[in-house]
Amino acid sequence: MDAKLVNPFIDAFITVMPQIGFPTPKRTKVFLSDKNAVSKGVVVMVGFTKQIRGNVVYNMREDTAKFIASTMMMGMPITEFDQMAQSAISELSNMLTANTATNLTNLELEVDISTPSLTVGEGFSLKISDGQYLTIEMDCGGHKIDIAIAVDRNL
Amino acid sequence: MIVDDSKVSRTILANHLAKTNFEVVAMAKDAAEALKLYQEYNPEIVTMDMNLPDADGIECSRRIHALDSGVKIVMISAMKDVNLIAKGREVGIGAFLQKPVGTNTIIETLMMLSQEKVSRVAVLRESYAKVFANALGHGLLNMVALKVEPTVELFDKKFLEVDGVAVIIGLTGNPAGRAVAYMSMDTMHKFGQTMLGTDEITEDEYNDAVEEAANIIIGRGVSNVNDVFKDKELRITPPGTICGNGIKIASPKMTTFKITAKTDLGDICVNVGFAEGD
């Protein structure tokens, strides 16, 4: 995978998260994997087409998803990961990925993104790539989100 | 659902609606209550007052629209000006009425708004979902020699629940969306054996067989849509494959259809969803 394609994802996260109430997002880990990812509880997948092909997956625990959804909605208490919380997390994934797409456009790569697919359930396996892919662990307010990136230039 | 801070206005409007086929499922006195009740009742149409104690009608509409971009909102307020209409359109308000409103005007407006929703679903079903159903039928015939006529139904559950394998393929273009091809583990095993003509297959290879088949079927569906609509430029993203029990796939803000092929190997399904709104 082309390392140049990774920064747009990190930059998007660092740009978008403060806007929704997380002032200091940090990158805490980066690792390569070739095995299937395992769901931590809430997984959102968004696909890329045109000059970039692939998927990005936002993988987090359900309590993280609830915490983020609650913060996005000005601290509204969320006890269950209900439809409103799902909408919020879907919307966040959409914002992050759209922001990434804009960053990729700045590298003169034309991209289009799909609708987010949000999946709930812990421990199921998720295959997003036939080869190696990169996972970046981001921290926002003590909560961790894994961003698994499996994208390549579409030659 | 009626959103109005004045009990008198709510009662008048409810009385008007009592004479129609529309049923008032909820009434809210402020934006917070409107949001809560919208979640609870998921009404087809919301009537919105401009002046609410905790936020104005535009802001309240914006919040509801953020939850569900498919919401139909009609603003009923004392004021009605171009500026208000322009702002309202941005947040999903489909119609503007000025108080006082007669029963007939309300009925006409609500009918118009609700039909808009019906026709969009019909368009998606006929022009998109059925095309994917045909692609599923063709794919099964070509790959595993199964002759089936897949059925299409509107899917309105909160979650698509899968025990087995689900291949998620994103759709970009207009409309954007996603397709999920799924089946049980048992069906996956039979499908893989039939497709590859052997039973010496590893779990990963079974997954790959289903993933490849899904890619072919969805890809064919997309190219058939593109053949008809030259300007839609639908494309598919690479597949993501999920395996496990009790998987729940949500489809917030999407109109989705369940396509089912009942085969000797078990049910083979495709759930195809399109983003709501423009």
What keywords describe this structure?
heterodimer, A: 155 residues, alpha+beta, Chemotaxis protein chec, seven-stranded antiparallel beta sheet, two-stranded antiparallel sheet, globular, B: 278 residues, alpha/beta, Rossmann fold, 2 domains, five-stranded parallel beta sheet, 7 helices, elongated
Shape, principal axes of CA atoms of chain B: elongated
Task: Describe the largest sheet of chain B.
Answer: 7 strands, antiparallel
Low-confidence stretches of chain B: none
How many domains in all of chain A?
1
What CATH architecture of chain A would you give? 3-Layer(aba) Sandwich
Order of helices and strands of chain B, N to C? EHEHEHEHEHEEEHHEEEE
Please give the CATH class of the largest domain in chain B: Alpha Beta
CATH-derived topology of chain A: Chemotaxis protein chec
The fraction of residues assigned to DSSP E strands of chain A is: 35-45%
Provide the helix percentage of chain B: 40-55%
Number of helices of chain B: 7
Oligomer: heterodimer
Using DSSP, what is the number of strands of chain B?
12
Counting H and I runs of at least 4 residues, what is the number of helices of chain A? Answer: 3
